Amino acid sequence: MVTIVKKFGGTSVGDVTRIRNAAKLVSDHIKKTNDKVTVVVSAMAGETNKLIALAKSCVSEPTLRELDVLVSTGEQVTIALMAMALNELGHSAKSFTAQQAHIATDRNFCKAQIQDIDSLNLKAAIDCGIIPVVAGFQGIDADGDITTLGRGGSDITAVAIAAALKADACYIYTDVKGVYSTDPRVSSNARLLPQVCHEEMLELASLGAKVLHPRSVYFAMAYKIPLCVLSTFEPDAGMTWIVKEEELMEKPIVTGITHRTDEAKISVHKLPAESVALSTLFQAMAEENIYIDMITQTGFDGKNTDVSFTVLDEDSTKALEIVKKMVPSLNAQGVECDRNIAKVSVVGIGMRYHSGVAAKVFQALASENITVQMISTSEIKISVIVPRKYWEVAVRTLHDAFYKDNVEISEEAA
Amino acid sequence: MVTIVKKFGGTSVGDVTRIRNAAKLVSDHIKKTNDKVTVVVSAMAGETNKLIALAKSCVSEPTLRELDVLVSTGEQVTIALMAMALNELGHSAKSFTAQQAHIATDRNFCKAQIQDIDSLNLKAAIDCGIIPVVAGFQGIDADGDITTLGRGGSDITAVAIAAALKADACYIYTDVKGVYSTDPRVSSNARLLPQVCHEEMLELASLGAKVLHPRSVYFAMAYKIPLCVLSTFEPDAGMTWIVKEEELMEKPIVTGITHRTDEAKISVHKLPAESVALSTLFQAMAEENIYIDMITQTGFDGKNTDVSFTVLDEDSTKALEIVKKMVPSLNAQGVECDRNIAKVSVVGIGMRYHSGVAAKVFQALASENITVQMISTSEIKISVIVPRKYWEVAVRTLHDAFYKDNVEISEEAA
């Protein structure tokens, strides 16, 4: 008997017609396969933002605990409607709030992390032939308080439930057909990828491909849940499976080109080249919860170096202020912030087995006269910072460069 | 230390400004008295209907269990916002869903009855100086499923919580100043009643005065909770206390005149005067869950009688059909339905000690040429069925007749 989880995101359940459409997809699957299906849903598109706006129109600083009580009603509405729609199609469906599905989280309101799912209730329902419809994005902490997982949390719920049920697969229904080699709006050559491995997906998700939340990929990898991304509106138009590296049928050197344009670069000039200076600098950022992405160090003259790092645009003013105040005590020469940057990354598990990728990246960018301001690499990705105005050109150039003659190697050849 | 419950209805929390206003009322009370206050709230006005309409736009017959999951989000939104508003005023408030407040009900979705409240959680919060803000109208059944109490349920929640907390009083904040001697929109002579006793309030509530749900009055009576009805918008403009009969300071013969215009009269002609015929007739109604209000039997000719009874307008077509089908087997002559009726009632605990009330009712109605079609009496009320078009005239006439020289008797004189 095959057990699967199907998760529908906000646009997939954006109104009652779409909810009925999603219910029909589930129903058709069950009628065809007799699989045991558990459904996870997000709030209807726009509802979460509407509820947050309501709170902010009521008080200036909403209590976080109460914000979660408020926001969690969004998914509660969808589970009820989805269960009704499945019942109307002749199934026996039952909604589960996080409390009823026993989704235990830590106590961090608005950004809680799932700690455990006791699947007893869900399994009992499934064994009775019931389709459980579970509220995504929410949990219950040890005090019995309602928590929410933060944005993208419904994907995490879906994969965590799949793990708890030892499901055979988890399908993430969204408004795109799957994971593309790059943003199709930027490059008409973008290809729908039939398969990516978890490591690639983690890099792609973290780097700005908005299809899946990185933590949900991490869960799928850790609990070995085959994950599939596909479109609710064109479920037969293709899909992307996120699988283990060893299950990949082919390993292109570069799987995808991603970008993000929501970061800024802070550059500190002539910082004394002592490790204490660097640790003081980044400790100060950590204390203010400023997330640091890339860090590069250049121009060592025997005494001082120039240090650049990227932060989220929204944190950049705060970060700049902090560093400015530290410049005298750090004995540095000055600091500046450049918001006109973009990060473009090439990702591919095949890089592990191929050299020359970096050279090809620089070559492609040089052919368009795009200067590279920062570089950061990992085993399976190369990220570069370029002037923001060139980001689309950079993405297209890199995509065409790698997809024109993307060497595909079989597992045996690797 | 005084413990009280304050309940705010849908219009009292109809938008964020009103929620802040209600929070201010609670805050001012606490700052003035240092009382321990628990707040109970309804859904924002209109929300419950909006959610039901959403369900009906999704499926033709919403599953009742899921309808409760859906509808209960209405109060969950309000508890969160109210707790935030109280926190912003410098208090420490915490929202409680029915599940968190341990409000146990039976399994009747959409019309559940409260069976028990384990006030452990609420008391623990109150002991910590926290203001609990509890979702009205909802509960949890033995399976952990969410239930709702049906319309008016938030009043019941408030009184049940007051009973569980052994509170000193329960204040029901609404959009009117209290209980009136009759509908102020019908008679300009209507008076705000400073006190009514539970028995009177039960009759008034059941007979159509929409201020309080009868079950909440029953709870208050059974658990001896002093209940107060007042306006959220003019809290200083008067109020009505619902008290024990022996606590009434004065006992007017007639306390109030009520009406309802949502019933229809079914008349069965020449029914054999055997008790089996009557029991067969009303058993058939009971099986279809048709609520019977008044029953009268007239014109006994030694063999047959005419039987009339009233049902809710919305049930009248079904009731008529059922009786029509039964006419041959019952050996009756025929059946007809009159929807142009209204019920007008005079209620007063003082009737127990005074005769002549019925005579005065008929005299007043006769003076306006209003014919009485049915009569029903209890120890403290007289109800009459009159043509619907005369209901306002009947109410005004009866109100003026009794309030012109309403004999007031002290407890000693009774």
What features would you highlight for this structure?
homodimer, Carbamate kinase, four-stranded antiparallel sheet, 12 helices
Biggest sheet strand line-up of chain A: 3-6-2-1-9-11-12-10
Number of helices of chain A: 12
As residue ranges, the low-confidence spans of chain A are 407-414
* Largest interface summary: A-B, 38 and 38 residues
β content of chain A, as a range? 25-35%
Your description of this structure?
Two copies of one chain form a homodimer. Chain A is α/β, with parallel strands linked by helices. Chain A has twelve helices and 22 strands. In chain A, strands 3-6-2-1-9-11-12-10 form an eight-stranded mixed β-sheet, sandwiched between helices. Chain A has a four-stranded antiparallel β-sheet with strand order 14-19-21-20, with helices on both faces. A four-stranded antiparallel β-sheet of chain A has the order 16-17-15-18, with helices on one face. In chain A, helix 6 runs parallel beside helix 8 (214-222), helix 7 (198-206) packs antiparallel against helix 8 (214-222) and helix 9 crosses helix 10. The longest helix of chain A has 18 residues, at 16-33. Chain A starts with a strand and ends in a 5-residue tail after the last strand. Chain A binds chain B through residues 16, 19-20, 51, 54-55, 57-63, 65-67, 69-70, 72-73, 76-77, 79-81, 83-85, 87-88, 94-95, 97, 99-100, 144-146, and chain B through 16, 19-20, 51, 54-55, 57-63, 65-67, 69-70, 72-73, 76-77, 79-81, 83-85, 87-88, 94-95, 97, 99-100, 144-146.
